[in-house]
Q: What sequence folds into this?
């Protein structure tokens, strides 16, 4: 491979440019997802119940508009709302509206035969008091109107409808003193998608700036120290292109993948860059330097890449699609970054060295000013001094570790066990409202709407039956709803077709199916479609207010279980099936799936890494040493999170796999260099000391640069990503410390133990042969 790269630099650069063009074209196919499909598999029962049975059949897409700051019975206000009704009904995709203006006009038509807003404030107040205005006038100075849309409205159509409604608000000419706000989950989701789009680019820029600072600060012993950064961004461009062609969506989780890819990609670039500079310093033969670099560093980095991939593969076991997409993006990205640094990076350094070398020869030949030491060369001498300081520090750490491995392992093991125990008590942040920027105007508006309405969470029961006009079924529904509202404090109310049937039959449920069907026929489609579908499906809506925010994740799960238990104690008529779904049910199950499986995910990752190393090396010592080191880091990380009060989120629940993927690389690179030095005839201690000094600089540089890259997540406006960035920076720091302190102790203990056993076995065989002779 080294010979191929040395012979085909022009071809490599040409292919790289062509792939860049192809990748840029592929970015136009990237789609953003924020819906149910990011949380649940499309073929899962959870998704089918929520998306197909509830959202597509019974859920009504409504965009609420808050009107605050004045009397709800003001005729001028109602006329403006009436104008708003007319303007929005003409928007494609809008079915109808619900507002106080419509109620007043209908009441006025019934009383006076005139379908218009009366001029008398007293009449308006009378009409509003005589009607059901639940959810329309939560307070005297607050009026809410709803724009009801068709089901199955696409995301692009929602954006267009949202924009048209905003234009309608201006055209409706609301009277002075009133504040009109378009709010609801549609406006919130659109704003969040826009913020995600802006955030991805900003995070890459911030990450790049942090990387430049880190490279200037710690990558001081090589020329062209900024070169790893453009190489990594080239790999990121390829990743974006692959993302589009492979239809991997952009989600809140995949946004966090790019700083991780930058951190890992910069690591690969630094390893190759540092080694080729070392080879050029040893022997000023660029062709030989390329071959030696690929020969020694290539396999080490490739093995680290494979093991990192195995750590990330454990993320694919998650039942949450956005975590699976996160894993796919990481796996594709690290492979592309590796190939970019291997081919383009090494070729580029080779070419730059040749240009500089020829320039120097030309300068010396003609006695030009290039022979005079420049400020940069003087600066390089200063950097060499700084580099020596780093070597001295790493050398001292190596000596201490090698002399006291038992003490170091005992302390590290004790802290690991304590951390693993403390990890069970790390709190879980499950309120999805805390995952987005708290100062986001759309979130503030949404919370204000929830404050007026007392929360809008609901649990939706889907009733599947052979006959939805069966009086026995309706009576059971009536009794079951009354039971939940009367006995379960967090169920504040319920609505179903039963309430409409009773309202049209003197407060009673008819005794015959025919009478029920006649009532169904008389109901407006807009009302009927909310509660029955065809002749076999019905919907019960249980209002639970802000139960999710009040009860939290575990309390919400208990509430759902209580309702399911009630269904067992008060079973529906034979042949009827009930399914519980809705936003609280979906998010409760999803967040538990994300967080409760983190231990199994980590154990699976450890197992994959161990067997992966065992297959590659066919040596249990080489397989155990990195795994033991990373197990220590996982334990330490749990302890740090517990004692610092950092909470788990759906993103940090993946941390065990990420620590395995990222941290094992450092240990593998150190181990490869240790055995390379040992093969030269050095003792265990000398080989570890030499490895620590020679490759330690590159590992420390890449580790610190990776930490800087991850710290870019702290600049994200999404608190969940900030939390993830903070915890990841801590984890990489712990992995870096473990590589220099714990891994050498583990490696020396295991390798010396194995060599003693081999030596003892050889002595025993020799004694047997002598005795036999």
A:
């Amino acid at each position: 491979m080294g010979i191929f790269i040395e012979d085909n630099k022009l071809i490599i650069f040409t292919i790289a440019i062509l792939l860049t063009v192809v990748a840029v074209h592929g970015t136009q196919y990237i789609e953003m997802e924020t819906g149910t499909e990011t949380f649940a598999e499309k073929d899962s029962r959870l998704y089918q119940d929520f998306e197909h049975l509830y959202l597509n059949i019974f859920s009504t897409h409504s965009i609420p508009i808050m009107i605050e700051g004045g009397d709800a019975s003001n005729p001028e206000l109602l006329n403006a709302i009436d104008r708003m009704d007319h303007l929005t009904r003409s928007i494609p995709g809008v079915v109808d509206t619900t507002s106080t203006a419509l109620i007043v006009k209908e009441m006025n038509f019934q009383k006076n035969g005139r379908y218009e807003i009366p001029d008398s404030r007293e009449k308006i107040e009378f009409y509003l008091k005589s009607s059901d205005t639940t959810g329309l006038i939560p307070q005297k100075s607050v009026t809410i109107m709803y724009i009801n849309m068709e089901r199955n409205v696409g995301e692009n159509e929602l954006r267009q409808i949202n924009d048209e409604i905003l234009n309608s608000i201006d055209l409706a000419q609301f009277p002075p003193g009133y504040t009109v706000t378009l709010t609801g989950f549609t406006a919130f989701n659109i704003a969040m998608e826009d913020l995600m789009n802006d955030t991805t680019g900003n995070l890459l820029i911030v990450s790049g700036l942090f990387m430049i600072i880190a490279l200037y600060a710690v990558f001081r012993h090589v020329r062209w120290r900024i070169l790893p950064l453009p190489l990594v961004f080239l790999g990121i461009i390829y990743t974006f292109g692959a993302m589009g062609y492979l239809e991997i969506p952009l989600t809140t989780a995949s946004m966090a993948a790019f700083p991780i890819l930058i951190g890992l990609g910069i690591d690969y670039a630094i390893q190759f860059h540092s080694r080729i500079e070392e080879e050029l310093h040893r022997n000023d033969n660029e062709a030989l330097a390329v071959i030696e670099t690929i020969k020694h560093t290539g396999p080490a980095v490739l093995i680290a890449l494979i093991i990192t991939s195995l750590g990330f593969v454990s993320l694919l076991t998650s039942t949450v699609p956005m975590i699976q997409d996160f894993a796919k993006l990481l796996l594709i990205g690290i492979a592309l970054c590796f190939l970019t640094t291997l081919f383009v990076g090494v070729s580029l350094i080779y070419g730059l060295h040749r240009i500089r070398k020829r320039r120097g020869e030309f300068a010396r030949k003609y006695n030009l000013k290039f022979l005079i030491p420049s400020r940069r060369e003087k600066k390089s001498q200063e950097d060499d001094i700084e580099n020596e300081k780093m070597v001295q520090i790493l050398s001292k750490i190596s000596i201490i570790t090698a002399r006291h491995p038992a003490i170091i392992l005992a302390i590290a093991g004790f802290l690991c066990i304590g951390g693993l125990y403390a990890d069970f008590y790390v709190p879980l942040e499950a309120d999805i409202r805390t995952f987005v920027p708290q100062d986001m105007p759309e979130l503030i508006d949404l919370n204000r709407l929830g404050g007026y309405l007392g929360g809008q969470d609901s649990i939706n029961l889907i009733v599947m039956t052979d006959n939805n006009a069966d009086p026995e079924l309706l009576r059971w529904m009536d009794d079951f709803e009354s039971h939940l509202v009367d006995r379960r404090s967090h169920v504040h109310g319920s609505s179903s077709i039963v309430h409409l049937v009773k309202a049209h039959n003197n407060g009673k449920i008819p005794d015959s199916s025919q009478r029920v069907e006649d009532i169904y026929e008389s109901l407006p489609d807009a009302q009927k479609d909310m509660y029955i579908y065809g002749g076999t499906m019905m919907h019960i809506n249980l209002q639970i207010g802000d139960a999710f925010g009040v009860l939290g994740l575990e309390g919400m799960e208990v509430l759902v279980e209580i309702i399911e238990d009630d269904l067992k104690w008060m079973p529906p008529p034979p042949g009827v099936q009930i399914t519980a779904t809705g936003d609280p049910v979906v998010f409760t199950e999803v967040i538990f799936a994300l967080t409760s499986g983190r231990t199994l995910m980590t154990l699976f990752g450890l197992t994959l890494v161990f067997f992966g190393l065992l297959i590659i090396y066919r040596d249990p010592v080489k397989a155990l040493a990195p795994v033991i080191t990373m197990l220590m880091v996982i334990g330490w990380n749990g302890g740090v999170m517990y004692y610092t009060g950092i909470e788990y989120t759906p993103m940090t629940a993946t941390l065990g796999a990420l620590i395995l993927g990222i941290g094992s690389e450092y240990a593998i690179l150190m181990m490869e260099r240790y055995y390379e030095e040992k093969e030269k005839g050095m003792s265990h201690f000398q080989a570890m000391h030499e490895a620590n000094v020679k490759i330690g600089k590159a590992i420390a540089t890449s580790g610190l640069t990776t930490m800087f890259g991850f710290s870019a997540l702290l600049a994200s406006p999404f608190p969940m990503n900030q939390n993830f960035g903070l915890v990841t920076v801590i984890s990489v720091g712990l992995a870096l410390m473990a590589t220099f302190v714990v891994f050498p102790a583990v490696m020396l203990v295991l390798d010396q133990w194995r060599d003693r056993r081999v030596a003892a076995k050889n002595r025993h065989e020799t004694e047997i042969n002598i005795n036999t002779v």
Notes: The two ends are 50 Å apart (CA to CA). The first strand starts at residue 61 and ends at 68. The chain is about 70% helix and 5% strand.
